[in-house]
What does this fold into?
Amino acid sequence: MTYHKKAALYIRVSHEEQAMKGYSLQAQENRLRAYAAFKGYEVVDVYKDEGVSARHRPGHRREFARMMHDVTAGRIEIIVFIKLDRWFRNVSDYYSYQAILDAHHVEWETTEEDYNTSTAQGRLYLNIKLSIAQNESDTTAERIRFVFADKIKRREAISGKLPLGYAIENKRIVPNQHAAVVRDIFHHYLAVKSIRATMHYLYNRYHIKRTYPAMVKLLRNEKYTGLAYGDPQYLPPLISQETFFAVQHLLEEQRRYHQTPHRLYLFTGLLHCPHCGKRLVGLTRHYKTRQYIYYHCPSPTGSPIASHSFRLKEAELEEKLLIALPCVMERLTKRDSISSAFTFYLSCHHLYPHWHYTERRHYWQTLLRSIYFDEVGDPVITLCEEV
It folds into this structure.
């Protein structure tokens, strides 16, 4: 039976390249599929980063991150793309991710160029190509910065992405039909002193939906006072400075009010994301009269290893750990004589139900670090895979 290498087809195209050079997603995919069929590869998946410039770091490309997750999961043996500049335009980025590929024995090939990294001459050629690509990208970035600086000086719009209440006319940012809505929202928030109530008001009266974080971002947007890029008159103000700073003061007061001792989360520093390996971050959310505590991955969607949205409830994790601990301790005693973790567990675990939050936090920090220091010599562990 003939063995077929498991291949990933990677495609990246920016809007400019698609329009000017014909590097459309479909054209690249057709070429890559034909190449894979010729080489006898089994196509595992096609990873398409559309509208992504070469200046985007690889970890911020959604599909690239998903592909790297599949690499670490052992689903891929070779990656195929049309040219090196689809892959990287930065020498340091290349070697950072090449180390991951090497660790998982994953190769790569291009359909339009020939590289041989097994020889010193081949590696030199690769470095030269990467350096040229990086220089081209840096030169383009400098040109864009110059154009943007000139636009900012003339107070012209440099992006079509604008806050609610603004539009672009003749290259300038001007108020649109939602300008009055923005003014109303700021004054309504000052009146009701509630972000959620303001969210509902915005939706019920104007049929504009905003999430809680988006509502906070709107209320904190200093552009509504006319300030942008250091210019206090860059765009027409929709609210006064007094109103804006009154809202900021109220937001800060509410932020401090909702800060509780739960800022010291039970498992701070102990949890890793199972996708990208970063430490999970504690997050507190209030709904009506209840408080909910989560741990979530701080990486943006399209992290260096995975494209994901990972979250753990603290209460559920605590419950699972309490159930799992006796089995873990039994395993420790079978393997070792008496470990420090086992001694600590026996001395105080029966008191756990009577402890306050800070005492429970100290217990988990001490116990779990002891367990995993005894086992693997690393006090920072991925608990979500253990429970």
Q: What stands out?
A: Strands lie at 6-13, 42-50, 78-81, 107-110, 166-169, 172-175, 281-287, 290-296, 311-313.
